[in-house]
Amino acid sequence: MHCLKKVTDDLTWVGANDRRLAMFEGVYSVPRGVSYNSYLLTDDKTVLFDTVDKAVRQRFLENVAEGLGGRELDYLVVQHVEPDHSAVILEMAQKYPGMKIVGNQKILEFLNQFNDFDFGSRFLLVCEGDALETGKHTLHFVMAPMVHWPDVMVTYDSADKILFSADGFGCFGALNGALFADEVDFARDYMDEARRYYANIVGKYGGQVTALLEKASALDIRMICPLHGFVWRRNLKDIISKYLRWSSYEPEERGVMVAYASIYGNTENAAEILSSRLREMGIKTEMYDVSVTPTSEIVSAAFKWSHLVFASTTYNAGIFISMEDLINDLCAHSIQNRAAAVIENGSWAAASGGLIRAKLEKCKNMDIMDCTVSIKSAVKAKNRADIIALADAIAAGFPKPKTGEEKGVDPAAMRAIPYGLFLLTAREDGKDSGCIINTAAQVSSSPLCLSVTVSKANHTHGMIMKTGEFNVSVLTESVGFELIKQFGFQSGKNTDKFADCGYDARAANGIRYLPCHVNSVISGKLTGSRDAGTHTVFFADVTQAFSISDEPSVTYKYYFDHIKPEPKPAAGGKSGYVCKICGYVHEGDTLPDDFVCPLCKHGAADFAKL
Ligand code: FEO
Fold this sequence. Notes:
seven-stranded mixed sheet, single chain, flat, 27% helix
């Protein structure tokens, strides 16, 4: 019986999960299973995006048949011929004789290699930039070679702004009834598996992933549909920002991964002493016993941490077997841009340290520390001192914590105060306007009094000064960057921010409020104000307050972490400064102290050098 899920009105997930697979690609353990995603678009034409692994063939065929509801299948877009996505293509070609197979030249070549079938007359060859109209939708094909195989291409649906991303943005783990990343706690429960998937499947091809991300950055993408794992329809920045980092081989976190190979516990002891000392100095550590940890987990950790320490006993005059496998795997996955250190052990002829160093030296931009610790059998006082010296040398590369007396005014401390995001609206002489603010608070309960803090540069500020009335719409986590731009990055002086908004919701005071992406609305009547330099703090009696939804309020931190897109580098590699609030880029080598962002009106302190 079918088990399919709606993605949008006319797009349906027709894939399936496999929780019995022990080793994905025969090498990566998948204890939480894996999903094979396939998507069916039902437009004037019907289009299937990829098929699935043979293990879930039956469910997939039932899903496609149900999704088609008796219609013919017009197109099968093949984005990648690896058999976990192509195992059912031949059967589909036979079952749906009118179906055209859409793909690039390499896809045709690989289809012919894997199958004995004449695809020629059924094949619709596409190249970079080609488009296929299916009715309401237009599909644009973008080549993405080596994201994971040379045949890979992705597809952009410009009608619904969906990127079908092939292996890109995939994740290990079955979907467990959910489909969208926002249905689960992805950061807590799945990000490690997304990193393990990335590092091991496409980690070697950072340059090619970067090239795809650059092409994707030119597209307005509202949803990402990968071939494994969850569909992204909200907070796309969460996964795109990770891909930008992983593909550039920049570490995600400053800290030390300690991987050790120990036969009788003595090399492990050295690794423990090192990790304990680092922790005492406030440095994060993660430890892995290579004998019992799948290599894919350690490769993934190496993509995460800034410093890597390898502690290995000597075995057969070489590196201990599982440690050698790990080092070879890391080199094969192009690990680079890391600081690394080595601890060796050998009861009569220690050799593992030099051999590990020699392998790591072949990786790009590896800063291999000179102070290799060499142990004979067990850690002795001299070895312990060497390990402490190694910890100190590693710690020297980390920022030294300041004492309480040495600390000045750190803007990060101010940002730690929780703020929200609100749409503040006013009406003057029949004209509506509004702006985004981050500070609104209940001041007292009797009388029920509210304060809002508004930049004097905002047109809404002047309107409230004159009329003494306003509404606060409390924005929720579903708010998109477009709405923040609409109300936050342009002036109401010369723009009707509500033009073409399609709604006219007003509170009892006649002032507009936002009816969506909002959980409550509060109306205020001014009782006083306090000049605060660049801003005014308005105090108001609450005249009306009502709830709209139970969605969580968006915080300023949530906006930065999940909603605001990553700044793009200045075109042509020019130097400049980017506004951390709205993304405005000021080109030039210097930024005046009194610079004010022309879009969001934040000052120079909120700019970062590109
Ligand atoms: Fe999921 Fe490269 O196949």
